[in-house]
Amino acid sequence: MPSFQFQNSCALITGASSGLGAEFARQLAPHAKRLILVARRAERLKALSQELRQAYPHLCIDQKAADLSLAQEREKLAAWIEQEKLPLNFLINNAGLGDLGDFFHASWERLEEIIELNITALTHLTHLLLPALRKQAPSALLQVGSIVGFFPLLNYGVYAASKAYVNSFSQALHIEEASHGVTVTLLAPGPTPTEFFEQAARLGKKISVTSRAPACFITSQKEVVAVALKAILRNQAIIIPNKKLSIMVSLLRRIPFCLFQKFISK
Ligand SMILES: NC(=O)c1ccc[n+]([C@@H]2O[C@H](COP(=O)([O-])OP(=O)(O)OC[C@H]3O[C@@H](n4cnc5c(N)ncnc54)[C@H](OP(=O)(O)O)[C@@H]3O)[C@@H](O)[C@H]2O)c1
After folding, report:
1. CA of 144 relative to ligand 1 center, distance in Å
2. Which domain holds residue 207?
3. Is 134 exposed, middle or buried (0-12, 13-18, 19+ CB in 10 A)?
4. Are 113 and 69 in contact (CB under 8 A)?
5. 171 CB under 6 A from ligand 1?
6. Which of 60, 239, 260, 266 fits a disulfide with 34 by CB distance 3.0 to 4.6 angstroms?
7. What confidence category does residue 214 fall into, taking pLDDT thresholds of 50, 70 and 90?
């Protein structure tokens, strides 16, 4: 079977209204035939669609405002794709939320939203749309996890655990789907300047990517997306889009938990 290419692809990007999702749309736009942009903020999707349409008149763009934490909205999206007979061959499960602070003081509504979006929505959309991806093979599925999914993380407990789920699930699917022509790649970014940190901050708190990580571990949105897209073409199972961070992650994964605990408690 020929390998997956971005040329003339039909890609669905969740969380396309900002950050990495919008950057995926920008970098795919010169190559893709159709982009389906999904997020809650309709006006942001509209602005991005206008920008891309002007630059790439050949491109067909659908804006779908949907709250993916709701099962009926996910089902509606999948039903629309089937009804329109869209030749979906690239799914980017990127939408995600965090919460920064200790578990004891977390709001249950926020934690539930994280679990519903980062775990349930990603799994449900994958389940709903994998038949379409197989049908259009060679296809690609990109699951956006995180480096924090490789370790337990203080003050990010539920978010890190939700990404541990994504990281594990994606690696299993990479193997399962190999014989069906669907390339499955886990993108595990480290700190990246996006709106993620202001969204994850609790009421009255201000956080930014630079307050959370040393400069050498911070990667730009452009770089994260460009490296991820290259990894898909190489059929890579996992991509950590920063070399220094990738080395640190592989070292930390090798040390016993008692030492790791000391390291993260500092
Ligand atoms: N930035 C980092 O340092 C970093 C590091 C590792 C992993 N990640 C992961 O990267 C992914 C993208 O995040 P980002 O950094 O680009 O942050 P971002 O700029 O905050 O983007 C998050 C996207 O998710 C969408 N979203 C949130 N709730 C949603 C819902 N209920 N339904 C549909 N869409 C929803 C948001 O759109 P609306 O608000 O318009 O719905 C937005 O487009 C996430 O999975 C995040 O966990 C980020």
Report:
1. 10
2. 10-265
3. middle
4. yes
5. no
6. 60
7. confident
Q: Above 70 in pLDDT, residue 121?
A: yes
Model confidence pLDDT, tens digit, residues 106-115: 999 999 999 9
Pocket test for ligand 1, best of 14, 74, 97 (most atoms within 8 A of CB): 97
CA of 196 to the centre of ligand 1 (A): 6
In a domain, 186, yes or no: yes
d(CA 139, CA 91): 8
pLDDT above 70: residue 16: yes
pLDDT surpasses 90 at 266: no
Q: Please state whether beta strands 10-14 and 34-39 pair in parallel, antiparallel, or not at all (unpaired).
A: parallel
Least trusted range by pLDDT, from 10-19, 58-67, 110-119, 243-252: 243-252
Helix (H) / strand (E) containing 36: strand 34-39
Q: Is the CB of 96 under 6 A from ligand 1?
A: yes
Most informative mutation of 40, 99, 165, 222 for ligand 1 (most atoms within 8 A of CB): 40
| Whether 14 contacts 93, CB under 8 Å | yes
Task: For residue 249, give the CATH number of its domain.
Answer: 3.40.50.720
- pLDDT (mean) for 19-27: 98
Q: Is residue 258 part of a domain?
A: yes
Any domain includes 85: yes
Q: Give tens-digit pLDDT for 199-213.
A: 999 876 777 776 777
4 located within any domain: no
Total domains, the chain: 1
- 187 CA to middle of ligand 1, Å? 13
